[in-house]
Structure formats: structure tokens, C-alpha cells
Specification:
By secondary structure, the chain is of the alpha/beta class. Helices cover 47% and strands 16% of the residues. The two termini are 13 Å apart. 41% of the residues are buried.
């Protein structure tokens, strides 16, 4: 029997966060049996950790993953990031001394700082799983104001590190073809980047499936939320932050409501209802037509499946070329067609080329009316067709096969599957 390869996976997101559970654990759980022993370092936020730590530990234990949760430092900007980097480095060194490390998988820029340092010092291969253009996201999302010297300094630091990560990582993963194309155009990168592997945010399509929908749970939600069989449900799934264009989505709904008196807007989110409802008032929308419902993961398929169509508008900023919204695959897996905007990663091309909904390029009433004139046609797109689209580009199985390939390239391994 071949000796297991010790792989350290570093995530700045916590495993007790939704992203950790959907975008990290499923992959490394499947990769482990190929001959990898995983040590998982993650930065955990206290509230989520207190609620879900036992669940995550059970998942890790049952998949032979050694979990090393760190206390996420979230105090003074920049200083807290430096503290997190220091904690990651200390844990990496501890793992190296006690177990040895054959490869480091760094998820995004902050973990890559220590991964690169260990490659340079100990010649340990590292995979730069970049997850988007992180420094530019911080600027586009108005988290870093470049007019403030400190943030300008930090931005320049990470853009310099970005060059080093891309030039020195053994392998690179981009979430989108659009992001890869953008990087190939960068003249300041000396390395040939043509071998970047594109792996979008994938979804568990066995879970996000009509087979996971419970009629009993659907009926419960309809009664609780006062949804009738005649209502036309436009939905939005997920958190509402810097990137998601709530104003424009509400404007779209106002135009839809004028055309379809039976329309209601369902927000499946754990965000504050007050924030949404205050915006609703600004657009003179009847709050009775707005439904806001948080959901535990287990009930998501039944709740989302009440949708006729789902919408998400994302700010088409420069950094969004490299973004892959997880909700896209989840919605399509459930057979829910999508209305979205262009110039966000590969989102538009996936929807347009596969006739999985409608893509807009302008945010105005005329454009909304053009889409709404076809909304019944959009809502009637065949469920199985939409599932095939999801399976073709963003199933966990497809993502797993891609990571399997990248790991072998990174380790130059002959391990057999």
C-alpha cells in the first residue's frame, strides 16, 4: 500500500460557515481515499463555531480529516489579518514538524502568503486556489478605500503578492474562464498561465434536486408564508451584501408586479428583513408582496422550489470577472430558471448558451419589460434541461474530477484512483 500524501488545506473561510460546508468539505472528503491525508486549517468565527463545531468535527472524523480550527481574528482592519496570517503560519509549522507536509492547498490570497513562504523555505508544492481577484474585490466592494494611505499600501502589497502566487504556485485554479482570460492578458506576469484549471463553485446536485423536495414541507411553507397556487413567485437566494444589486432587483419586481398582479418576491436569506423592507418602501412596493424567509440547509430545496423564476443581479465590477455564484448551480439543479446580468464571471454565457433563463446587460425599465414579456416562457423551461445544464459545468463530481487532476499535477504523483 502506498504511503498517504500529507496535504494541508488552508481556508480563510470557516468550515462552520456555509461556504466551508459547500465548497471545501465535499471535495476533500472525496479526494482523501485517493491517497491523501488531509490536515484542514480554517479560520472560524466564534458564533458559527459554537453552533456547528460538533457537526463539522463529526464530518472530518468520519472522512479521516484532521481539523485544525483557528479563532478568526476580526478586530482592527489589517492588524487582525496579520494576526490570522501568523496563526496560520504557526499551525503549518506544527503540522510540518509532527506529520510532514507533501503539498499545501491555499484557498485564496491570505492563506497563500504562508503557502508560498513554506514553498520557498521547504520546497513544498502549493496549489493557489485563488477564488477570484481578492484585492480588487476589496476595492470594488468599498471595503478598502484607496484614498486612505493604509489601504492603498495593503492593496499594493497584495497585488505584488498576486504576481508571486501566480508565478510560483505549482498549479493555479480560477473560478471562471473569464477570469482566466483576463489573467492571460496580463503582461506583467512572466510565467505562462495557459494551464490554469477552471473549476467553478459547484453544488451537490443530489441535494439540490427535485428529489429532495418534500410536498409536506412545501405545503407548510405555503401556509406559513401565505403563498397560493396562483401566485407567481420570483425568488432571490442568499445573502445581500456589497455585490448584490437589491435596488435594481426591486425595480425589476415593481415592473413585474405592474404586469403580473399575482407576483410575489420571495427572499430566502438570513439577512435582516428590516434592511430589505426599508428598501421596499423606497420603491413604493406593497410589503405584503414581499416574503422574507430564512431557511436551514435541509429545507432549502423545498423552499426554493416554490419559485417560478429566480433572480440575481450582481455589480458588474472589474473583480467580478473572476466570480462564480454558487447559487447559480443550486437553482439550476432544482430546475429553477434564472434571470441575471452579464459581465459577472461565466454566469451570463452559461445561462445564454444553454437557454437556462434570461440575461440582461442594462438596468432600466425598458430592459426589464423586455424580459418580463417572456417571463412565462422562461418559467416553463424544462426542469430536466436545467439540471443537465448544472451537471455539465458545476456538479460536485465534475469539480472533484478537476481537483483530482490538479492534485496529481501539483504533486507529480502516480497514485491510482
Amino acid at each position: 500500500m502506498e504511503e498517504l500524501k500529507n496535504v494541508v488545506f488552508i481556508s480563510y473561510d470557516g468550515m462552520t460557515d456555509p461556504l466551508g460546508q459547500s465548497q471545501v468539505l465535499p471535495y476533500i472528503s472525496k479526494l482523501g481515499p485517493l491517497g491523501y491525508k488531509f490536515h484542514l486549517i480554517s479560520c472560524e468565527k466564534k458564533n458559527n463555531f459554537d453552533k456547528h463545531a460538533n457537526t463539522i468535527k463529526e464530518i472530518c472524523d468520519s472522512n479521516n480529516i484532521t481539523w485544525h480550527p483557528l479563532d478568526f481574528q476580526n478586530g482592527i482592519p489589517v492588524i487582525s489579518s496579520m494576526q490570522n496570517i501568523k496563526l496560520i503560519g504557526k499551525k503549518l509549522l506544527e503540522i510540518k514538524q509532527n506529520h510532514g507536509i507533501d503539498m499545501i492547498h491555499a484557498r485564496s490570497y491570505v492563506p497563500a502568503i504562508k503557502a508560498l513562504a513554506f514553498k520557498r523555505k521547504y520546497d513544498i508544492p502549493f496549489l493557489f486556489d485563488m477564488r477570484g481577484f481578492w484585492p480588487d474585490e476589496r476595492v470594488d466592494g468599498k471595503i478598502w478605500n484607496l484614498k486612505i494611505p493604509l489601504f492603498k499600501l495593503v492593496y499594493n502589497y497584495f497585488k505584488k503578492k498576486e504576481i508571486q502566487f501566480l508565478e510560483e504556485a505549482n498549479e493555479i485554479v480560477s473560478l471562471t474562464e473569464a477570469g482566466k482570460k483576463e489573467m492571460l492578458s496580463w503582461k506583467h506576469i512572466k510565467r505562462d498561465l495557459s494551464n490554469i484549471e477552471v473549476i467553478p463553485c459547484c453544488a451537490d446536485l443530489n441535494f439540490f434536486s427535485p428529489k429532495s423536495v418534500s410536498e409536506e414541507t412545501q405545503t407548510k411553507f405555503k401556509e406559513e408564508l401565505s403563498i397560493s397556487n396562483n401566485d407567481f413567485i420570483l425568488s432571490y437566494l442568499g445573502s445581500i451584501g456589497s455585490w448584490y444589486m437589491l435596488d435594481e432587483m426591486l425595480q425589476f419586481f415593481a415592473v413585474l408586479k405592474a404586469k403580473k398582479s399575482n407576483a410575489k418576491f420571495l427572499f430566502v436569506t438570513k439577512d435582516s428583513p428590516d434592511f430589505i423592507l426599508n428598501k421596499v418602501k423606497e420603491f413604493n412596493i406593497d410589503p405584503n408582496d414581499i416574503i422574507i424567509k430564512p431557511s436551514e440547509r435541509s429545507e432549502l430545496p423545498s423552499l426554493i422550489s416554490l419559485s417560478d423564476v429566480s433572480i440575481f443581479f450582481i455589480l458588474p465590477a472589474y473583480s467580478k470577472k473572476a466570480s462564480s455564484p454558487t447559487k447559480q448551480a443550486e437553482l439550476l439543479g432544482l430546475g429553477v430558471p434564472i434571470i441575471c446580468n452579464d459581465n459577472v464571471g461565466d454566469t451570463g454565457p452559461v445561462v445564454k448558451e444553454n437557454q437556462a433563463g434570461m440575461v440582461i446587460s442594462e438596468f432600466n425599465k425598458k430592459t426589464y419589460e423586455q424580459v418580463i414579456s417572456k417571463i412565462d416562457e422562461i418559467a416553463s423551461i424544462d426542469t430536466e434541461h436545467l439540471r443537465k445544464v448544472a451537471k455539465s459545468y458545476a456538479s460536485l463530481e465534475k469539480g472533484y474530477e478537476s481537483y483530482k487532476k490538479v492534485y496529481r499535477l501539483c504533486l507529480n504523483s502516480d497514485l491510482q484512483s
